[in-house]
Each structure stands twice: as structure tokens, then as C-alpha cells.
Amino acid sequence: MKKTPLEKLREKGKKARQNIIVNAAEQVFATKPFSKVSMRDIARESQVSLSSIYRYFPDQESLFLEALIRGTKKAELMIKNLVSQEDVSVDKVAILFIDYLIEHDQYFRMMTHFMLDGVLNPASIEKLNKMERDLLDQFDQLFKKLNPKSNSRILAHAFFASLNGILITYRKYPGRDIKDVHKHMGQLGSIISKMFSGMIAIED
């Protein structure tokens, strides 16, 4: 059934308020660990009442998962655009992925929390799995493009795990400043990319 102008306006307003709340959650989570963030913190940051936030998001898990999905979707679209280009390479995709999650550290911390520590309900697990599948699809397309005969899906999984391993291991590298840490992770990403480029070449 076609929506009335009033229904469309209400829906638009609801979406706008949800975006304000998610933006606030990202801002708060960028400065505090997940376990230290409360819904009251988000209410203060968003200037939306706590009761209103709970109307849109029943709990902290659903709110942060929404923020993670939105942030990961941006990375997915950036990778998709890069993969569509003629001169795409494994190295370019690796550097884009690493740089994005360095710049948006809150998304990486959300991702690792949900994947490693979070006790999720079935609906949240399905959303998280879909987010990961959509991201892996872009890596899959990369390997298919570079060598259609390769086992692109297993390469996508291994590549994704390798890049996350770099971020987990070195994002808090002791004794190094941020600039050196970023440079080091970029170098490791390039080494990983060369390894995967070689695997594509020999994959039958």
C-alpha cells in the first residue's frame, strides 16, 4: 500500500533521529572502551532522551551493531569501487582496508568485540554474519578478477584473516608512535599482498 505524505514524513524523521543516535554512539565509542560506555553516555552525546533511544534501540548491543554495520558498509563500498577499476591490485585493496580501520578505529574495536567477546542473540549473530559475508564478497570478487580459476572464496577468507591479524597485533605496538605504527602496518600489508598475489598466480 502506498504511504501517505504524513507517513513518509514520520519515517524520514524516525530515520534522522536514528542517525543522530548512531552518530553519537560512534563518537562515544571512539573515546571509551565498549565495556565502559553506557546508554546514558550516548543520550548525553546525542541530546536525545534515554527513553527515546530505547524506542529505537532496545539495548546497547543493537545500537553498537547498527553503528558497526553502517561503518563496515562504507568500507565495503570503497573496496567494491576499487575492485571495479582496471588497475586494481591485492596491495591497493589491503592498504585501503588497513588505512580505513586505522582511521576509524572504533569500527575495528566494535568488530573485534562482537567477534571475540560479545554474547549475541540469534538476530544479532545473523546481522554480524551478513556483514562479514558482504565484506568477504568484495575480496572474493578481487581474486576472481585477478584469476578466475583461483579458489577465490578461500583466498578471500585467508586474506581477510591476515589483514585483521595485522591490525590486532600491531595497532597498539609498544614503544612506537602512531605514525610509525601506521607505516609498519602498511609494510606488513604489502608483504601479505605479495604473498597472496603469488598464490593467485599458481592457483589452479
Q: Could you walk me through the main structural features you see in this protein, from its secondary elements to its overall organization?
A:
With 204 residues, the protein is mainly alpha-helical. It is 78% helix and 0% strand. The chain has helices spanning 5-29, 39-46, 50-56, 60-83, 90-103, 105-117, 122-146, 152-170, 178-202. It is globular, with a radius of gyration of 19 Å.
The count of DSSP E runs of length 2 or more, i.e. the number of strands, is 0
First-to-last CA distance: 52 Å
Stated plainly, the CATH topology of the largest domain is called: Tetracycline Repressor, domain 2
CATH architecture of the largest domain: Orthogonal Bundle
Please outline the major beta sheet: none
The averaged pLDDT comes out at 88
Uncertain stretches of 5 or more adjacent residues: none
Radius of gyration: 19 Å
Q: What are the SSEs and their pairings?
A:
Elements lengths: L4 H25 L9 H8 L3 H7 L3 H24 L6 H14 L1 H13 L4 H25 L5 H19 L7 H25 L2
Features:
single chain, 204 residues, mainly alpha, Arc Repressor Mutant, subunit A, 2 domains, globular
Summarize the structure.
This protein has 204 residues and is mainly alpha-helical. The chain has 9 helices and no strands.
